[in-house]
Amino acid sequence: MKAIGYHSAGPANELTLVEVGQPAVGAHDLLVAVKGVSVNPVDVKLRAAVQPDGGPRVLGFDAAGVVTQVGDAVTGYKVGNAVFYAGDVTRAGTNAEFHAVDERIVGRKPQTLGFAEAAGLPLTSITAWEMLFDAFRLAEGGGEGQTLLVIGGAGGVGSILIQLAKTLTKLTVIATASRTETRDWVRKMGADHVVDHRGDLVAQIAALGIIPTHVAALTATDQHWPAIIDVIAPRGQIALIDDPQALDIKTAKPKALSIHWEFMFTRSMFGTKDIAVQRDLLNRVSAMIDAGTLQSTVTEQAGQLSADTLRAAHIRQESGSVIGKQVLSGF
């Protein structure tokens, strides 16, 4: 089958059209004909730094498509179902004609979205959901009188995190954004307040008269760390998803802060007992999209999947200027 992969770690031009075998289907697996994918920072990081083991490595984690085969232990899906999901970082990726995925991390595609647009939701939705309800241990409907600061609010995770926080909790949300278009975007997503992360965060947040109790550090955490420690409330909660080279966590001790890593692939990597919560939350997100409670975060339709279009999408991702999500349709 056709796929887009790379033979050697490096720049985006390493991505090329390859022929690989159709994936084997395990007991809990679905074989999905891929109709849409999206590009995430993890794709760029892996392509740039991780050498393939043997043959070409196929990346891509977000996908939407149609089930063409089911494993012997599958109970929740059948051939012909339209699905969306974020895959497993330890398995071959979704930039291919067909993809095998564990049914327990798969949701039913929103009926109101096309395949490409639906593919823009899973990874970011799972990440945002787990930050709110696993890392921060908030309850749905909770958070009254508390405030969430989202650093990097206009990116893919920030865009859906703001919406989920405003829809499912009573948190006040402060989002950071530095350009006119990103400031407008985070307001559209539902942010109550917007501050500029290129400016003095401490002064701007102080001017609001609000002390954040929770901080979602989505980008440039090492750069913003001193300000995060300064503005957060004592016994506050910090969750981060990026890869800071060095953090002085001792600075968090005086305020007795809790620091959490969020990595949405953990459940699939380790086959945790609660792995199926990702299926359940994706089905919730799908229903909320169809009900109009959540809105799509896709801003860029990058064309039909090919080596050229995927290279261009990776380069756009590396620019750091993507608002929301960029997606491609299948081969």
Question: Which features does this protein show?
Answer:
Quinone Oxidoreductase, Chain A, domain 1, Rossmann fold, 331 residues, 10 helices, six-stranded parallel β-sheet, seven-stranded mixed β-sheet, alpha/beta, 2 domains
Description:
Homotetramer. It is found in: Cytoplasm. Residues 10-328 form the Enoyl reductase (ER) domain. InterPro entries: ADH-like_C (IPR013149), ADH-like_N (IPR013154), ADH_Zn_typ-1 (IPR014182), ER (IPR020843), GroES-like_sf (IPR011032), NAD(P)-bd_dom_sf (IPR036291), Quin_OxRdtase/zeta-crystal_CS (IPR002364), Zinc-ADH_QOR/CCCR (IPR051603). With 331 residues, the chain is an alpha/beta fold. It folds into 2 domains: 2-121 and 274-329, Quinone Oxidoreductase, Chain A, domain 1 (Alpha-Beta Complex); 124-261, Rossmann fold (3-Layer(aba) Sandwich). It has 10 helices and 16 strands. Strands 3, 5, 6, 7, 8, 15 and 16 form a 7-stranded mixed beta sheet that branches. Strands 11-10-9-12-13-14 form a 6-stranded parallel beta sheet, sandwiched between helices. Strands 2-1-4 form a 3-stranded antiparallel beta sheet, covered by helices on one side. Strand 15 (298-304), helix 10 and strand 16 form a beta-alpha-beta unit. The longest helix has 15 residues, at 277-291. It is globular and about 55 Å long.
